[in-house]
Recover the amino acids of this structure.
């Protein structure tokens, strides 16, 4: 975080926003992966790229695999967007196919030097070109995502340290898990990560047991609602959802009907 400056306090100063699309996000991740030490394993290289502790990934590689799967899906999403443009697939498909080879999960124990050269300069150039051909999405910056993740982890530590009924603790920790997953997926699939995470969380709130809601410590639902609110910030089409999330946090446990309405508002 930076110190306040006169520009920060100037009401006319513009708020920094992140404008990305499928191509720019893929480019940023692949470019970061290529900077990793060629002497480490492929699993370690991707773990560092995704911000996952390499020692943790070595024990349980599923999170890295899930992120690579999302990158594969984002390539498909990019291809569908490019089909809607007037450009020939011959101009970008070879590059997308080459990039797909880099995302293989069959031999993550292999040295990164075996994979790092799979994507050529012309493939990255094709991604840059695709980024200009499709529309941008406005979302959270990486700095905002990191600040949100830090706050969520602080909340998680507090929940884990409190003496709470087991059902309440389990409910809160799973809501927090969904938040963290949404933040981790955001650099890959963008604002769609927020929509999908909130949709799942809202479904859980609809079905929360009345005894769990009644035993929830004062302010916990409200704090969770603020995190969801932040994750949805600047997600196109979610303005009503943002307002509804804030209202839900203040009216639990009498929210079943309200959340059913909110779920239908998610684009």
């Amino acid at each position: 975080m930076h110190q306040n400056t006169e520009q920060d306090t100037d009401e006319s100063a513009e708020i920094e926003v992140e404008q990305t699309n499928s191509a720019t996000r893929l480019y940023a991740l692949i470019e970061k992966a290529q900077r990793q030490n060629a002497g480490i394993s492929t699993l370690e290289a991707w773990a560092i790229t995704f911000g996952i502790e390499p020692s943790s990934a070595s024990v349980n590689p599923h999170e890295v695999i899930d992120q690579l799967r999302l990158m594969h899906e984002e390539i498909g999403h990019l291809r569908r967007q490019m089909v809607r443009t007037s450009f020939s697939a011959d101009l970008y498909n070879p590059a997308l196919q080459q990039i797909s080879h880099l995302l293989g999960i069959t031999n993550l124990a292999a040295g990164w030097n075996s994979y790092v050269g799979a994507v050529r300069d012309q493939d990255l150039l094709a991604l840059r070109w695709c980024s200009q051909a499709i529309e941008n999405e406005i979302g959270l910056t990486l700095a905002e995502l990191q600040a949100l993740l830090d706050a969520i982890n602080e909340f998680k530590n507090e929940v884990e340290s409190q003496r709470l009924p087991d059902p309440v603790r389990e409910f809160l920790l799973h809501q927090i898990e969904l938040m963290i997953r949404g933040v981790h997926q955001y650099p890959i699939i963008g604002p769609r990560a927020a929509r999908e995470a909130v949709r799942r969380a809202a479904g859980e709130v609809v079905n929360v047991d009345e005894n769990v809601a009644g035993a929830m410590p004062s302010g916990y639902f409200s704090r969770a609602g603020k995190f969801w609110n932040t994750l949805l910030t600047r997600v196109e089409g979610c303005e009503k959802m943002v307002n509804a999330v804030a209202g839900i946090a203040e009216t639990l446990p009498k929210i079943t009907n309200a959340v059913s309405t909110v779920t239908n508002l998610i684009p």
